[in-house]
Amino acid sequence: MRTITYLQAINEALDEALAQDERVFLLGEDIGIYGGGFGATHGLQEKYGQQRVRDTPISESAITGAAVGAAMTGMRPVMELQFSDFITVAMDQLVNQAAKIHYMYSGKAKVPLVMRTASGSGTGAAAQHSQSLENWMAHIPGLKVIQPTNAYDAKGLLHAAIKDNNPVMFYEHKLLYSTTGNVPEEPYTLPIGVADIKRLGKDVTIVATGIMVNKALEAAEIVKTKGISVEVIDPRTLVPLDKETILTSVEKTKRVIVATEAVKNSGFSAEITSIIAESKISMDLKAPIVRLGGAFVPMPAQKILESKATPQLDSLVEALDQVMGEIEV
Amino acid sequence: MNKRVNKIQQTKLIDGIEALKKMWEIRIFEEMIQELFSAGELYGTMHLCIGQEATAVGGAGILRQNDWIVSTHRNHGHCIAKGTDIRSMFAEMLGKKTGTNEGKGGSMHIADLDVGNLGSNGIVGAGFPIAAGAALSAQMQGTDQVVLCYAGDGATNEGSFHEALNLASIWQLPVIYLIENNQYGMSSSIKQMVNIDKLSNRAMSYGIEGITIDGNNLTEVSQTVSNAVEKARNGGGPTLIEALTYRHKGHSKSDKLLYRSDDECQQWKENNDPIFRLESELMKEGTLLEADIREIEKTIRQELADIVDSVKLDSEPTIEDLWTHVYAEDEV
Ligand SMILES: Cc1ncc(C[n+]2csc(CCOP(=O)(O)OP(=O)(O)O)c2C)c(N)n1
């Protein structure tokens, strides 16, 4: 299998989806000749024309609302929200309209739209361009929330998102765009709502979301030399969430670390730890659950401060030592 | 409100030489920022306003210190023109504790309330209602401050533009909306993103005066802004000014400039550069000789280079600083 970047994987999925289904079209700011904020739509307007790869004015609310209207009436829009932070500008259309319509209209209408968006920190663009707000979206009934962490997942999950009959939030981490992975050349879909065991282990489970998956895998390699065997679970989709896979892993390892880049307070890690705490497994845990997440501060611009605002490799290694410290290995 | 008319004549516009110096300061500041960025010494992002110096200086530069500006992501010119300390701006961009925002804001969020700079914004269109709010505050507190709100052409397609203009109009707020129409929002030509010739026509829907001007002509900018300021100060309400201009550089660092022709770009650079236009005016009227101007430019270059050298020695924020300013302290 060939190796391509996460960015190319997304571009390829969009390309294939446009080719496969006439109802699919793309809309967003600068997605045409510019190729999108981060290059994900590069070359697609040339190939499919300005009707199907549609540049819009800077009007997030209108873009989202237009996607809702088009989706309700037979199209399958894939919109790009340049930075996930700008969701705040589109909030009514997404939260009060897109997420509610199918339910409120007792199933008479559906809203099959995908909102692709770049999230996360690590570029020095400060508090209005570096947030991880996917938690918020996971709190809204009616939305599906996907966070692919490698190129293979990105392509398969994007295909699935486009085929899904619901509004789907598709979070792409900016720092993952340049990462590479093995990706099949042909189109394929991965199931929404199925977690992926990114690494098998027996001593401790790290449930990580987004870019933290990659850091967890690195940390697992580091502590391997100390004889600690780490299992890394990537939920891949926050909504629907595959509780089974998480609980099965924790039942085996009996130690848990949950890691998100998003701010820890009131965050998605609380959801995951609660699910574990509410299950019978919690009685058998060998160590208290450790939760790593973003500091409760707006993201600073300055490089050192920025890196300290989210969990890094060393925090994961420390956390692994901490949960293992409770017993003899 | 009929005292308005005489007041207009009293406005003291910016001195030509001072204006030229400011414009060169802005341009050289940005050239240096770009160099630092290319050299890998600057982390983060930046949006250069090279080619748009006349709207900065002719706008923010003619305000009183206690008047406010609200700026955008393309903010360096506005900030410098309003009197924000250049050293602190360099420091902010280089991630130093001595920066305007102590390293927390970076390029896009430079603020300096002491000189009336209410801050720059990373969210396109977010400034429109904030400016209205600041103007409301001036009105309610009975001060004669005015607010100058900068925004790009693309920003006028955000809902916030329309909502804020309506508010400013019904409350007759002392706010001037200055749209720097540099023809593009990232890659999108304004001609393709709106179906009207003049963005200033949009003012009509809200009962506001709308004017389109040559944004690269310093005198025209400062005169128009100054009239609008006097009107606002005297209770005459908001004005929408559309200033036609051009950004010489790409939108930001990742821009490959595929969406506009070299020819178009060259035209603006050669025939319509606001600095060169002001220079030739000053030379024509005999205020300055070519040699004086080159001396001015050289001096500023040296000054700014010295500043950068010294800023590099400043210390960075400490990890404790990550946790400060999340919430404001109670007043004592
Ligand atoms: C709400 C929001 N949408 C999109 C962006 C991304 N973005 C940043 S600048 C920009 C273009 C702005 O164009 P314009 O308002 O004309 O200002 P200019 O850059 O030309 O000065 C875009 C789309 C953003 N920062 N905020």
UniProtKB/TrEMBL annotation, chain A:
InterPro entries: THDP-binding, Transketo_C/PFOR_II, Transketolase-like_Pyr-bd, Transketolase_C
Keywords: Oxidoreductase, Thiamine pyrophosphate
GO function term, MF aspect, one: oxidoreductase activity
Span of domain Transketolase-like pyrimidine-binding: 4-179
A Pfam family hit: Transketolase_C
Cofactor dependence: thiamine diphosphate
Alphabetical list of NCBIfam families matching this protein: PRK09212.1
The name this protein goes by in its record: Transketolase-like pyrimidine-binding domain-containing protein
Organism field: Enterococcus haemoperoxidus ATCC BAA-382
UniProtKB/TrEMBL annotation, chain B:
Superkingdom of this protein's organism: Bacteria
Domain Dehydrogenase E1 component: 22-319
Obligatory cofactor(s): thiamine diphosphate
Keywords: Oxidoreductase, Thiamine pyrophosphate
Keyword check for Plastid: no
GO BP, sorted A to Z: pyruvate decarboxylation to acetyl-CoA
An annotated Gene Ontology molecular function: pyruvate dehydrogenase (acetyl-transferring) activity
CDD domains, sorted: TPP_E1_PDC_ADC_BCADC
A Pfam family the protein falls into: E1_dh
Keyword Oxidoreductase carried by entry: yes
The protein's name: Dehydrogenase E1 component domain-containing protein
Species per Swiss-Prot/TrEMBL record: Enterococcus haemoperoxidus ATCC BAA-382
